[in-house]
Amino acid sequence: MQVLINSYLQKHLSLSDADAQTLHQKYYKDYGLAVSGLVLHHKIDPLEFNKEVDDALPLENIITPNPQLRQLLDDIDKSKVRLWLFTNAHITHAQRVVKLLGVEDMFEGLTYCDYSKVPLHPKPHTEAYEKAEAESGVLSIQECFFIGKYINKKITSNRGVTVWLLICTLLTELNPDDSHLNCRYAQQRGWTTVHLLEPEDLEPEVKAAKHQIRDLEELRDVFPEIFKKDKSDPPHGSLNSQL
Predict the structure, then answer these.
(1) By Cβ atoms counted within 10 A, which residue in 15, 163, 176, 203 is the most buried?
(2) Known Pfam families for this protein (predicted)?
(3) pLDDT for the residue 36
């Protein structure tokens, strides 16, 4: 992703590799997505950017079906939970990712950053969270739970009966501050927030969220109420490697 974005900047803005990297990081930090800054300041076509960058990624060589992730999703009690995708990527990228993971049929809907509409409003902008809440039918911000890393989850409950779960596939721009930033904004918004760290990640100096986990399987312990009660012991191992 970094290589494709920098190549795009060099090609369309006539920048050196060093200047492309600097501009990329500046726009990412300022706007949540590099493409947002490019649209605002350089009038580039975000759909063309998506075609040359996100859609050009050789994901088929990177992502393979993840049976353990599918099992985790399948173990969730669907009488309490709706599965819903929430991503900063355009719809084409999001659909490719979940299809390659083998979980595309596990979700009821998708909230994505629509590159056909400018200005763009990716996370951590308030508009992105508001859009996800509106499209998924969330009833109360105070009932939202957000888990951020390469996957973001949001859970809301209605008198303990209905729970909403939003999962975000974040394969747009993998940046060390990505999950921390999105978790911090979710927490500030009033959502109960969980920060997913990779096993090799160092502890952040300042926690981004109320809770921290290092593997998605820990969700069985963090939110036991949304999993099927008659499920036998879950399989061991990490779900983080492909997400």
Answers:
(1) 163
(2) Hydrolase
(3) 92
Domain boundaries, the chain: 2-56, 67-226
Taking residue 236's Cβ as centre, other Cβ atoms within 10 Å add up to 8
Q: What is the pLDDT of residues 182-238, one digit of tens each?
A: 888 888 888 777 788 877 778 888 888 887 888 888 889 988 988 998 655 444 444
Residue 102 has pLDDT above 70, yes or no: yes
Residue from 184, 201, 203, 242 nearest 32 by CA? 184
Q: What is the CB neighbour count within 10 angstroms for residue 127? A: 13
pTM of the full predicted structure?
A: 0.79
Does domain 2-56 correspond to CATH entry 1.10.150.450? yes
Strands 81-86 and 162-167: parallel
Distance from C-alpha of 158 to C-alpha of 163, rounded to nearest angstrom: 7
DSSP per-residue codes, 119-151: S---TTSHHHHHHHHHHHT---GGG-EEEESSS
